[in-house]
Specification:
The protein is extended, with a radius of gyration of 18 Å. By secondary structure, the chain is an alpha/beta fold. The chain has a domain at 31-118: Nucleotidyltransferase, domain 5 (2-Layer Sandwich). The protein is built from three helices and five strands; from the N terminus they run H-E-E-E-H-E-H-E. The longest helix has 25 residues, at 4-28.
Length: 127
């Protein structure tokens, strides 16, 4: 029995999962300090979820690139045409003005995206 083809397939599968895991992690490792909440959902990503990072200066980052509101609208509108219930998670820094978050929500709704969630973190336990 030849083991070389089986080892090749296992190495390809392993490399695929490692690379896809790194891409999904890169969206959540940006320097965004999300607000704290006592009752928040677990940070599990939904399958195919788009993460919109709102940096402290109000800059929007989606899929590793910086976008403005019109670019965000066109990107989300194209995706919403294909996927009716497209999930979007907004990771807004705690120092971002609320108006900027409202602009992002409004852009999502204009593009036809209604499945919106917000990233929070649990507060540090006090001793």
């Amino acid at each position: 029995m030849q083991l070389a083809p089986m080892i090749d397939i296992l190495l390809l599968l392993l490399s695929f999962f490692i690379i896809s895991w790194q891409f999904s992690r890169s969206e959540t490792e940006l320097n965004v300090s999300v607000p704290t909440a006592q009752e928040g959902a677990e940070p599990e990503q939904q399958r195919g979820e788009i993460i919109i990072n709102v940096l402290p200066d109000g800059t929007l980052r989606v899929e590793g690139g910086t976008v403005d509101l019109t670019q965000l609208h066109s990107k989300l509108a194209a995706i919403a045409k294909q996927y009716k219930n497209q999930p979007v998670r907004i990771r807004g820094d705690g120092k971002v003005p609320y108006q900027r978050i409202v602009e992002v929500i409004d852009t999502c709704q204009k593009a036809g995206v209604w499945n919106i969630s917000f990233a929070t973190q649990r507060p540090e336990p006090t001793n």
